[in-house]
Amino acid sequence: MVKAKNSFEILRSRIVGAQDTLPKRLAEAAGYVLANPDEIALGTTASIAKAAQVQPSTLVRLAHHLGYEGFSDLQQVFRERLMERASSYEERLSRLEAKASPGTFDGTVMHGFIDAARNSVDKLSAQVTDAEFAKVVTVLARARTIYLIARRRSYPLAAHLAYAFGKLGIRAIMVGSTNGIDEEIADMAQADDTAFICSFAPYASDTVDLAARLHDRGVPIVSLTDSPLSPLAPLSKVWLEIAENDYAGFRSIAASMAIVSALPVAIAERRRHMQ
To answer: Which residues form the signal peptide (predicted)?
Structure first.
């Protein structure tokens, strides 16, 4: 058997592409490994199988199905990804500096980020159709209150929505307290409200927990995420898939920001015609 190329992005694309053809247990295992990449990198076959609620042999079968000689070969992809992400910002900057010619570092970085942002936005039309965007607008326009949830890299998306919704008179609440009452804030949401949730791999655990909490209470969820195997996808009434480009390990949010810039305007216009 030929060993598959060790690239997390290639592996992710392979799993997403095979999602509809994977047997049920392999699909469940595949969803778990993509949603929990750090645990896959650090765990044993037995501990991962237990957490994923599958047999260890299922993980081995999944590895074979994806072109790996064994589960340890598949696991190595996650270990390499973890090592790359563990590098400090200082280390990333040092690598960038080493690649730039003397006196050109600033311009090299600027154009690198511009190219990453441009490529992300250029792919957006193929990733999100007019019909998919309209479904999101419909759900959010009907919401009494929109609860906004995002962490880490995704936080600026929710912050912009909160600002734009406020300007347009659309009632929204940021679930991001400094005093640790996010669960209590989320518990105020009712079935006639909607939660808008943003999270991308490796998926903030508290974001996923809040999404599950809202889903269990019957609150509709609209999510912005990066894969059909995202833990947010099965919890969402409707979701948009956006894969962003990166520059030297620094990932863009340009395409996601384009979507959240358009949403408040489209929602406000839809509500105008609903009155």
So the answer is: none
